[in-house]
Amino acid sequence: MPNGHFHFSIGPVQGFVSQARRTRDLWAGSYILSYLAGVAMKEIKDNGGVIVFPSIDNDHLFKALNNPTAISKDDPAARIGSLPNRFMAEAYDPAAAAKEAAKAVRDVWEKITEAAKKKFIETPPPAIDKIWKRQVENQWEISWVIGKEGSLLDQRKNLRTHFPAEEPGEKCTICGERQVLSEKGEMDSRKDIRDWWTNVADKFNQTTGYHFWRKEGRERLCAVCTTKRLLPLIKKGEGPFDWDFNHYYPSTAYMCVVDWLIYVLDKADKDDKKLQEQIQSFIKTANAAKVPRDETETKIKCVSSITDKHPEWKDIADFRGDVFFPDAIRNDVDFPLPDKNKKTDIIDVLKKLTDASKQSPTPFYALLLMDGDNMGKLLSEYKDKQKEISEALSEVTQKAQKIVEDEHNGKLIYAGGDDVLALLPLDTALPCAWALSKVYVKAFKDNIQEIVDKGKGTISAGIVYAHMNTPLQTVVRDAHDLLDDIAKKKLDRNAFAVRVWKRGGPILTFGKKWKEANINWAEEVDRIKEHCKPSGNGTAYTTGFIYRLEELIEIIKTIAPEENRIKLLTAEYLGSRGNLNLPPEADKKRDKAEERVKAFYKLSLYPDDEGKSVPQSDGPLFVRFLSDKEIQ
Question: Is 247 domain-assigned?
C-alpha cells in the first residue's frame, strides 16, 4: 500500500475561469480545469497511487475518464466539471508520481489546444503558430509538495516560481493580458487585425449556424481564450476527448427570460386562448425574420415539460434570449438579421405578447458561487476523518445538478469538492443556494456528526443579480469578492451575500446568516417578497413605505432603544398609501402593522464597517427588487 502523501494543484483558477465574455467561455474554462485535474488523478491511480481527497469513486467525470464508451454529449461527465483543481494523493514514490501527473496534464492540454487550433485555422501562418505555442506553454502553474499538511501546498505556491512570458502587441479583448492572434503578429496594424477577425467571425457564424463570434472584429482573442471559445466544437476523437460536447450553453439573456417563459407557457397551457394566439404570432414573426434558435439544446426542465405537451410552442423556447428585449433587438451589431427592417415587426408582436401575458421579462439573471467554510482547517483538524469529509463532499457533488437544474430551473457549470458555480433565473437563485446549503450540512451530519455538532461543516454563498449587459467576467469576479469579503469575512461564514448590478454598476449589497435568532433568512426573504406583491386584498409592504424607510435610515440609527425605532416605523407604515389589508379594529390594526414592521426592521439589520449590526436600506430594497424583478 502506498504511503507517501503529496498535494497537487493546477492553477491559476479564478483568472482562467472568470476570463469569459459568454457563458460558454465560462463553462469551458471551468470544464477544462476540472478535466485536467481528472487527467492528473487518473495518471496517479493508473500507476498504483491512491487519491485520498477528494472522493472519486462516484464522480461522473472521473468514471468517464476511465470508461468513456457510454458517454453521450448530455451525460453529466460531458457537461459539468466535478473535480477540484487541487487534491491529495498517496504513492510509493510521491515525487515521481507528481512529476508524471504534471507531464500528463501538460500533454493533454497540448492536445486540447491543438484540436482547438485546427478548428480555428486549418493551416496557421508562422506568426499564429509562434504566438499560440508561447501562450499555451506558459498557461499553467502546476505545484506539488510532499507531506500530509495541506498548508504545505499553500507555502509552496507562495514561492511564485511561475512567470508568464512577456506579451507584446495588441491584447486579447477578453483576458486583456495576452497578445491577440493575428496573421502577421506584431507586424499587423490595428486595422489589419480588426479586418482579419471580422473574417474569422463571419466564418464561424456561418458554419455554426448561430451567433458564435461578435461581428466586425469586436472580439479579438489570444490562443487561451480561443481554445475556451472553441471547446464545444471539438468532437469525439479530436484531441484527447472521448465524447462530444453540447454546442449550446444558455446566454445570460436567456437566463433572464426563464422565469417569464415558464409563466407565459404555464398560463397558455391553462387555456388562455388570447395568449396562445400571441405565442403563435410571435413564433411566426420571429421565424419569418430568421431569428437564430441559439437555445435549442438549453432544456430548462419546467419549460421543456410544457413544450413537450405543446410542440407548436417549442420555437419560443429555442430563440436566442435577447429576442425578448426591444433594446437588444434594435442593436444591429449584436442582433443581426438578414433583413433588419423586420425588427419592427418583432418588437410589435413582442409588445402584444407581453400585453397578453400582463408581464414582461426581467433583464436580470443570477450567478451563484458557493464554497465550503474553512475546508483547509477542517481537513487539518480532522486528519483521521478525511475519508468521511471527502465522502460528504462527494454526496453534495452528486446531488447538485438535480437541485440546480431540476428543482430550480438553472444551469450548473461546476460542482466539485466544496465549490458550486451555477447560472439561475432571478426567482430561484436564493432558494437554490439554501437548498444546496441544507444538503451540504446534512451530508456532513450523515458522515461526521461531531463536525456539525461543533457548528462546522457549513457552506457560504455569493449571488450576483446582474443586468444581462453587465460584462460576464465582471460578474464572476464580483461573485468571488462577494463570497470572500461579505459572506465569509463580514458575516463570519455560514451565510449568504447578494449584490444587484445595474448596467452602470452595483447598487446594493446585502447578506445574512442562513439562520439567526430562529429566523431562516432565505425563507424569510421569500416570504417578505411575496408580501410585496399586490394581491386582491392589497399588499403588506408598499413601494412608498420601502423608499420612505430608505429616507429614514440615518434618523433611525440615532434613536434608542429599538422599541422606539419600531414605533416610528409603525407610524410611517400606517401612513403608507395603498391598501395594506389590515384588520379594521384599531388595536388589531396597530398590532398587525407592528408585527410586519418588526419583520422588515430585522431584515434591514446588516453589519457596518465596525461589525455592529445596524439598520440599512439595502435589505428591504433587495426584497423589493426580487418582487418587482426590476429596480429604480
Answer: no
